[in-house]
# Entry
Amino acid sequence: MTAGIDSVLRGSRILPVLTVPDPATTHALAEALAAGGARCAEVTFRTQGAEQVLETMVAHGGLTVGAGTVVTRGQVERAMAAGARFVVSPGYDDEVVARCQELGMPAVPGIATATELMRALRAGCHTVKLFPAEPLGGLRMLRALAAPFPQARFIPTGGIEERHLASYLADRAVLAVGGSWMATAAHLERGDYEEIRRLTAAAVDRSTQ
Ligand code: 3PG
# Structure
């Protein structure tokens, strides 16, 4: 039986989404996130070195690390080999979900419509990523989608900033909130780990209020 994403996240309600162009920055990034109080992170498969970034994050030991932007079965396998503890996708894909289930890997598929949510629920995925949350209509959209599906939990992601956090986190259907605002490409390019720590701490503080 595959552990649910909720037990893997261990109560953490903030999920930093990381796209790391230079794997050499990974350790410093993990340090900054952990110092800010983050307990988990999602490393996206959008860069050449994503597996190396994942491995280094896992080796750091301070965070529960998942793989993001996973769109193929092969990426599920590579994520698992690199030590990922969960897999997030931008959309719903039967093959990705099936491979995760075969490997015992918690899967969080992305959904943007009721139809996609129904597919995810039928496949046994009760926690989904609402993506891209803000362009879709934010909390209003989330509430409207959640109403007919009380068994569903959401990780809204996409266009979310710190100012949106409190209202999302107050909603019972929201398991956690994901986003890149805590550690952006610009922060990494500048080597601004103090700002990453500060933004992470602010988000984590808000999530525990
Ligand atoms: C993702 O892959 O989850 C998104 O790119 C994160 O969205 P954001 O960059 O708008 O926070």
Remarks:
- The two ends are 33 Å apart (CA to CA).
